[in-house]
Write a structure and sequence with these properties.
This protein is an all-alpha fold. It has helices at residues 2-29, 50-58, 61-92, 98-108, 117-126, 133-156, 161-169, 174-185, 187-203, 206-211, 220-224, 235-244, 246-267. The protein has 2 domains: 1-48, no CATH class; 50-267, MetI-like (MetI-like fold, Orthogonal Bundle), CATH 1.10.3720.10. The chain contains 13 helices and no strands. The chain is globular.
């Protein structure tokens, strides 16, 4: 009976997650004269890819998608690189303020994202990086660091110190031990941190709206809102874009899924 309830709950959650996507897919395939139809079928009568064709031909969607991909990949690699070394320091070394630093990192996750908009805006403006990719990358990398450090530090704590000590005895430096032993063993946690950085930057809207003001610099989250006007919204194209932007995230998730469960589980054992 218990297993039956668990499976029923899993199915209910799966349906709740998938059904909205199927509705968006249905809207994206509807002909222009049936966008507001009450038909609940997933594949509507007279299904067409005209919304996709118009989106790719008549807008800068591919350019917006490229901007998002460039910013997101740079944010993910920079964020994981910084977090991996910072987490190693918290895990393996003793220094003044270590405990306070970890508490500060954890506490920073409790701050609402909206409260960070003003300080991020002022920082980027003083650096003269408004309306630039670099400004977006810095903002995203900074905001994603605390969680990445926390999950990586927890995972490093599960790796026996004896492995590093053996490497040090053999003449390897501390940096060499980190590079050759810790990082390869931490692939699950690194993939989790990368996936978190990727999805956070890919779907972000608020910071992008504040920092970017040129259509050529827009990410896809800003670009799709260009389809929304005062009197009319291109819902077919909006739905088509919403479906297309899921493809990169889905590819990254599928590639890293084999490490997903082990990374989250082991990373929470200690820390």
């Amino acid at each position: 009976m218990r297993h039956l309830l668990i499976h029923a709950a899993i199915i209910a959650v799966a349906v709740a997650c998938v059904y909205p996507l199927l509705r968006i897919l249905s809207v994206s395939l509807r002909p222009g004269d049936k966008l507001f139809s009450m038909d609940l079928s997933i594949i509507p009568a007279g299904a067409t890819f005209s919304s996709y064709a118009r989106l790719l031909k008549d807008t800068m969607f591919l350019h917006w998608l490229w901007n998002s991909l460039l910013i997101t990949l740079a944010t993910s690699f920079i964020g994981v690189s910084l977090a991996s070394t910072a987490a190693y320091a918290f895990s393996r070394f003793r220094f003044p303020g270590k405990k306070a630093g970890m508490i500060l990192l954890l506490s920073s996750q409790m701050i609402p994202a909206g409260m960070l908009i003003l300080p991020l805006f002022l920082m980027i403006m003083k650096l003269k990086l408004m309306n630039t990719y670099l400004g977006m990358i810095i903002a995203y990398s900074v905001s994603s660091l605390p969680f990445s450090i926390w999950i990586l530090k927890g995972y490093y704590d599960t790796i026996p110190r004896s492995l590093e000590e053996a490497a040090l005895v053999d003449g390897t430096s501390q940096v060499g031990a980190f590079w050759r032993i810790i990082l390869p063993l931490s692939t699950p946690a690194l993939s989790i941190a990368f996936l978190f950085n990727f999805t956070t930057a890919w779907n972000e809207y608020l910071v992008a709206r504040v920092v970017l003001f040129s259509a050529k610099q827009y990410t896809w989250t800003l670009g799709l809102f260009e389809l929304q006007g005062q009197f009319i919204t291109q819902w077919g194209m909006f739905a088509a874009g919403s479906m297309l932007v899921t493809i990169p995230v889905l590819c990254v998730f599928l590639y890293s899924s084999k490490w997903l469960i082990s990374g989250l589980t082991l990373g929470s054992v200690k820390g």
